[in-house]
């Protein structure tokens, strides 16, 4: 089975390769027999290839790796395509954060104005990739990592239909952490989760037929033992009656988070830009140390994840429970094995909702509990309850933003781009939206 990674020079690619080297993957019928890396930055792809070579050095049966500069050649013959591109690089992310912040609103790569700006730049490239997949690898499954994952997956689905599935590690990380806090085995719980990417809620957590969530929400000590419990606090979680995805902190505590971001010495994007420049430069000079340098950089990256939200909630360091989420690599590999027919998996994925959420079109992508096997991916609507009024309101508002963003990116319409920014709950004025759009210059007039 051939796996192609688009964005093969990305920093997290070694996580995927490490998963491919495990015994569980090597013994599966749908195991990867060749990994192809494609990236528009040849130097970064070369550094990542050197990290992978070091990972494989101690393996008796390593997965062969090939770096392919031509997109069509990278796609041709692929059974699975992981799309993990970053259009504009980390420099683009820095601009996506700084332009909104200069107008007094949140800048973040998937949330708020920053997420819209990133999507405007990314969707046209993602749709061209989808067209090339359809042309040269029509039987391939596309597993989308590219952020903003919900918007990009919905755009690609307009070309590829149900053969593109979006993944995120935040929901499964939430489930795992909540299960442990409730004293349950994360592998043995069932759950009800629904929303959009980075805008979802865990509404039940069941083990042996009993819902553990009410007891967890009532237990302040248990809530204080994991990241989402500390982020939102017991009083607000009990008022909601659910556990929100960590990214909802930007919505529920927007004033506190914005203040923390503005007071920070640098934005998250600026930190990652500086950190990755240093890593790729050092690993390029000393390829024999590439794996060591990557491991050190990765740990620092994970420890500082969502630091501004933790600061806005009182400040704390991430512990091993917080760091052990689902992992993009584990979610992607579980989905790949299920689609290859090795097993059946139940995962939280980004797929078309088929009109099952009130007010959303049939082709609107939602993030929810899905069953995956050799026949494809299907939402588990039998396991998911309808959203409450507050949750549905946010979902409908954000979906309007997402669909306007796709329209703007696909057609170049400045009106659609202004609508996307101006309707976002984290942008407080159409005048602010217009200034952000003018400063960033993402879309032509239309």
UniProtKB/TrEMBL annotation:
Q: Which cofactor does it need?
A: NAD(+)
This protein's UniProt keywords: Glycosidase, Hydrolase, Manganese, Metal-binding, NAD
Q: Does the keyword Transmembrane helix apply?
A: no
What InterPro entries is this protein classified in? GlycHydrolase_4_CS, Glyco_hydro_4, Glyco_hydro_4_C, Lactate_DH/Glyco_Ohase_4_C, NAD(P)-bd_dom_sf
> What remark does the entry make about the cofactor?
Binds 1 NAD(+) per subunit.
**Start and end of every Glycosyl hydrolase family 4 C-terminal domain?**
193-427
Domain of life according to the entry:
Bacteria
List residues traversing the bilayer.
none
Q: What Pfam families does this protein's entry cite?
A: Glyco_hydro_4 (PF02056), Glyco_hydro_4C (PF11975)
- Keyword match Iron: no
PANTHER family for the chain: 6-PHOSPHO-BETA-GLUCOSIDASE, 6-PHOSPHO-BETA-GLUCOSIDASE-RELATED
Regarding protein family, the annotation reads:
Belongs to the glycosyl hydrolase 4 family.
What protein name applies here?
6-phospho-beta-glucosidase
Q: What is the lineage of its organism?
A: Bacteria, Bacillati, Actinomycetota, Actinomycetes, Kitasatosporales
